Amino acid sequence: MSDRIPVLLVDDDPDLRAVTASYLEREADRIAVETALDAAAGLDVLADREVECVVSDYEMPGTDGLEFLATVRERYPELPFILFTGRGSEEVASEAISAGVTDYLQKRGGTERYERLANRIVEAVEKRRAERDAERAIGQFRAVAEGASDAILSIDTDSVIRFANPAVESVFGYEPSELEGEPLTTLMPERHREDHREAVDRYLASGERGVDWSDVRFNALHRDGREIPVSVSYGEFSADGERQFVGVIRDDSERDRHRAFIEHAGDVVAVLSSEWRFRYLSPSCESVTGHAPSDLIGERSLDYVHPHDREAVKAAFGDVRAGGDPPTAEYRFETADGEYRWLESVGSDRIETDGVEGYVVTTRDVSARKERERTLARLREWTRELNYTRTTDEAAQLAVEAVDDLIDAGLSGIHLRTEDGDRLEPAALGESVPSMFETQPAYDRDEPPGTRAALAWDAFEGEESVVIDELSSYESLDEASPAESLVLRPIGGHGLFVVSAPEPHVFSDTDVLVAEILSGHLEAALDRIERESRVERLHGATRTLVRAESREEIAERAVEAATDVLGFSIVTVRVHDEAAGGLVPSAVSPEAEELLPDRETFTPDGGSLNWGAFEAGETRMYDDIRAADALDADTALRSLLIVPIGEYGTIAIGETEPGVFDGVDEYLAGILATAAETAFQAEARTRRLAERTAELEHQNDRLEEFAGVVSHDLRNPLEVARGRTELAREECDSEHLTAVERAHDRMTALIDDLLTLAREGDPVTDAEPVDLGRVVGSCWRTVDTRGATLRNEAEGTVVADEGRLKQLLENLIRNSVEHGSTGSEGRSPSSNQAPPGDSRTESGDAVEHGGGDVTVTVGTLPDGFYVSDDGPGIDPARREAVFDAGHSTSQSGTGFGLRIVEQVADAHGWSVRAVESEAGGARFEVTGVESAN
User: Fold this and answer.
1) Spans of biased composition, class Basic and acidic residues (predicted)?
2) Cα separation of 780 and 856, whole Å?
3) Which of 64, 81, 121, 415 sees the fewest Cβ atoms within 10 Å?
4) Kind and range of the H or E element at 105?
5) Selection from 665, 455, 673, 477 nearest residue 573 by Cα
6) How many CB atoms lie within 10 A of CB 89?
7) Which pLDDT score, from 0 to 100, does residue 44 have?
8) C-alpha 385: how far from chain center
9) Cα distance between residue 483 and residue 189, in whole Å
């Protein structure tokens, strides 16, 4: 077989895939890597090309590494499969083991991880090749054993071989022609030859058989001079009157080897009768169960099976069929000391030879595997509880209790790094620690080599578990310790997981794996607790942030939150200033002010990382700005995190160490930026509202001034004109005086509507429940309806200013009465007319303003009310224009009536529109009205 090792590497990250392939081929020139971007592509490669090992990532889109492993195991059960996981992948290790993974490694660490991966690949492939060679040899042997015939020889009375079948070559090494004509003693060792001749002569003389011809056993002589055990069955026949003898010779070498294998095998080989009684047990029975084989022969096997498992065993072995799958059962078996041990038995077909009827069963001890499965099951329960811890102390104590339960390591403890980073202090300790240690173990960073502290810090700053089976003989430790077995596992950047016991060589590979998985979940729990604590404190800070009253105060509070709550040191908030043409610093932390040079503005063409993140609208994180061609590359700043504040600016966070920030920092900075953006938006709205309020107040002042002028400076001359007109009528009777009086009335209406417009624009602040139907009736009695008909279908109570609601309804009713005549030539909005009973109208007034044949309907809408009539309606092209101030086609109308309606609706926050009524007339709908019901 070629020494080349074809490997399939599956990883969705193209850069990492290329780097891993290059390193593997460089670390071991035997390795040839074929890559695939996902599980589907990997299966295609396995189908088309020879692959001796699969290396797969775990977190991939679509089918993940464990699902890919399951598919590979279905199609290629024996193919080595290594899971190459990212940080925190220990949480899937138990599932990977259950799914049959060959090995798994973490991606964390330097280039040495590729050396480890290459070594694991070579080891896995060489092991599989050896297993395959062994399987092939066994298969070949079986094929020969099943296809070969026994050697058959015939001899005459002189013991000369007269015939040999082809099988003699496989038994004795001779071609059949080489034996024919040779004496039978050719196949016998020297010591047996004389006995054979005497036995033949005695039989020929007396017919007396000295042995049982059906089964004669002795050592025969092979052509190469070695002796081989054989069994022979003899027979006698006559050919052409000549007495001859035939012998069927079976080579017993294989049987002896098989017996030796059974006698020395670790698994127990047993023969059970149909009544479940032991007929044979191999010697390994005693090492597995504690029972000597002779003690169990004749015993009923089911009596030793745990009562809860007997039915399952009987079901498994109750129907064994030739050619079917061999029955298999796992059960608890009572040992010689009365304890129970888990066994797994695989049965063959039923046998019926030598008077024995029953099964051949091969049994192995699976107690360790069952214990491992139980441990992993309990481990999953403990890790689930870790997910619900709320404090660091709670998580640490739970982890110590878990390791004591799962591994029985009473000297264990969780040591967390202090805030200054120079000490590992105990956060939780096992129950036995106080009695074994004079003082609670804590580890200072500056302790000299050879101390327990130095050993602890070396493990904390490493990436792999440190496993020591016998601490007292460990060369790197000079300080005495109550512990002998030790496992040290870093908990990310939080601290160190110490698992220890006072006896040496206590921890198995499974125990180490459990400690690693548990520490991984503890790290995730501590990350979550820290993140939740920071988020909670950050939310408190953001509440003060959104209450800031100026952009400068928002920026300052954002810097305070980033430094005091999130623990960042170098923080700058820049605000986008259009006048300055870029991002201008608005607030800076003291350390940033000390370390970084003054730069007033980052402009689009300045090449700053800040502007790049702001313009792209995305968060950008740099492990080392010296590799990013940054403006501050020549300063002490190394790590940099830039988060845009929407359209308002950026928050830039830095540290003097490279690679400081992670996903949690990015997440929390994003929350802070979102809060700052909300605060900036609120400040902008408040500022615009203040500006608008000031503008409206100024407009209202001007309008109020205008209303005062209209009320005082126009009414007085108008009243003088009215009085002069009355005096003139007393002196003479002229038709021109009537026209003058009509003009005076129109001027009065214009003044009234102008005053109404000036005073109805203020928002409604004293709304209260108003009975809509009652107000409609009141308005109908107030307006000069000229004999028109009202259909009051309004129901319910609305929230409104009753006086202004009346103004709106009176204007709409008056509009319908004045313009609803079916004989009208056109329709346009008008305003108040002469008081009821005024007879001073023109002859054409009934045509222009309607008459008694109009019906006005007031009804309720789901969110408001409407006023409609059955008059000629409004031209669709003019329905929006009717609400414009001054829009009127009536000679007597002011054009302000419907404008006042719209203004009253706006003051309430309502909407009004003109549409066609069911009768073809005009219909005005007021919506957005709050119901008091």
Assistant:
1) 839-851
2) 10
3) 64
4) strand 103-106
5) 673
6) 22
7) 92
8) 18
9) 65
> Is residue 12 classed as helix, strand or coil in its secondary structure?
coil
Kind plus residue range of the DSSP H or E element containing 727: helix 715-731
The predicted structure's pLDDT at residue 617: 92
Dihedrals phi, psi of 13, to nearest 5 degrees: -90, 110
For residue 823, the model assigns a pLDDT of 42
Q: Which of 31, 205, 39, 194 is nearest to 114 (CA)?
A: 31
| pLDDT for residue 839 | 29
pLDDT given at position 148: 40
Whether the Cβ atoms of residue 285 and residue 268 lie closer than 8 Å to each other: yes
Three-class HEC string of 644-696:
ECCCCEEEEEEECCCCCCCHHHHHHHHHHHHHHHHHHHHHHHHHHHHHHHHHH
Q: Write the DSSP assignment of 571-613 as a string of letters.
A: EEEEEEETTTTEEEEEEE-HHHHHHSPP---B-TTS--HHHHH
Q: Which of 102-106, 322-326, 632-636 has the highest mean pLDDT?
A: 102-106
Closest CA to 759 of 815, 689, 807: 807
Closest CA to 501 of 377, 429, 435, 412: 412
Q: Are 59 and 33 within 8 A, CB to CB?
A: no
Note the pLDDT of residue 7.
92
- Biggest alpha carbon distance in the chain? 191
The one-letter amino acid code at 20 reads T
Which residues, in sequence order, are CB contacts of 319 under 8 Å at separation 6+?
A: none
Q: Which amino acid belongs to residue 707?
A: A
DSSP assignment of 427-474 equals EEE-TTHHHH-SS---EETTPPTTSHHHHHHHHHHSSS-EEES-GGG-
Dihedral sign from CA coordinates of 191, 196, 201, 205: positive
Collapsed DSSP state (helix, strand, coil) of residue 50: coil
User: Rounded CA gap, 678 and 627, in Å?
Assistant: 34
Please compute the mean of the pLDDT values over residues 767-775 and round it to a whole number.
Answer: 92
Q: What is the 3-state secondary structure (H, E, C) of 249-278?
A: EEECHHHHHHHHHHHHCCCEEEEEECCCEE
Domains contained in the chain, CATH given:
5-142 (3.40.50.2300), 148-255 (3.30.450.20), 265-370 (3.30.450.20), 389-497+509-532 (3.30.450.40), 550-690 (3.30.450.40), 763-820+852-932 (3.30.565.10)
CA 214 to chain centroid: 74
CB atoms within 10 A of CB 760: 21
Tell me, what's the pLDDT at 826?
38
Alpha-carbon distance of 381 to 378, in angstroms, equals: 5
- CA pair distance 459, 498, nearest whole angstrom: 10
SS3 926: strand
For 421-461, the pLDDT digits (tens) are 889 999 888 877 877 776 778 889 889 999 999 998 999 98
pLDDT at 2 (0 to 100): 64
The predicted model gives 110-127 an average pLDDT of 86
- The better pLDDT of the pair 153, 457 is held by 457
Neighbour-count burial of 457, counting CB atoms closer than 10 A to its CB (0-12 exposed, 13-18 middle, 19+ buried): buried
Neighbours of 438 (CB within 10 A): 7
Query: Residue 913 belongs to what H/E stretch?
Result: strand 911-916
Tokens 């009777």 correspond to what residue? 733
Element (H, E) at 16: helix 14-27
Entry pTM: 0.43
Half-sphere exposure of 182 (CA within 13 A, CB side): 15
In angstroms, the first-to-last Cα distance of the chain is 91
Amino acid at 777: G
Per-residue pLDDT tens over the stretch 882-929? 887 655 545 445 556 788 888 888 888 999 999 999 988 999 999 999
Cα dihedral sign for 112, 116, 119, 125?
A: negative
Task: Report whether 864 contacts 927 (CB < 8 A).
Answer: yes
How many whole angstroms separate alpha carbon 393 and alpha carbon 2?
57
